[in-house]
Amino acid sequence: MNQCVSRGTLRLVSADPFAQPAIEENMLDDPSDVVRMRDGLRRLLALGAHDSVAAIGQVVDLGLADAGDAEIDAYALANAGDTQHATSTCRMGDPSDPASVVDSDCRVLGLEGLRVIDASVMPSVVRANTHLTTVMIAEVMAERLGG
Questions:
Q1: Among 85, 91, 107, 115, the one annotated catalytic
Q2: Tens digits of residue pLDDT in 40-62
C-alpha cells in the first residue's frame, strides 16, 4: 500500500498564514489502489479465519468470508481510515517543470531566500518510512547549507 497512485490536493484558501488550507486526500481514486486495498483486506480476513488466530483470541465476523469485490470495496470504503503521511505538496524537480515548487537545493522557485526542507519536497509518496526519508532530506540540506 505504500505505492499509492491516487493523488490529492492541497490548496491555499487565504493569504492569512493562520488560515487552514483546503486538503482533499482523494484516497483510492485510482483503481490500482483499490485493488491493493481489497487484496490486503482479503489477506486479513484469511488470517483471521486461520485456526492459529482463533486459538489465541476471538475474531470478529465481518460477514465478508464469501464477499465479492464490490462488497469488499464497499465495506472498506465505509469503514477503513487512512494512515498516510502527507507528502509531495511542494514537489522538488526541474525548475522548467511547471509541477515543480522547489529546486534540488530546496529553494522555492520564484521566491528569494525561502527554502522548504521537509516531506513536502518529495516528488511523490515514498515507498518507505516517511520519517527516515525526511530526516535524510534534512541531513543532506544541512550539510549543503554548512550546518
A1: 85
A2: 999 988 898 888 988 898 878 88
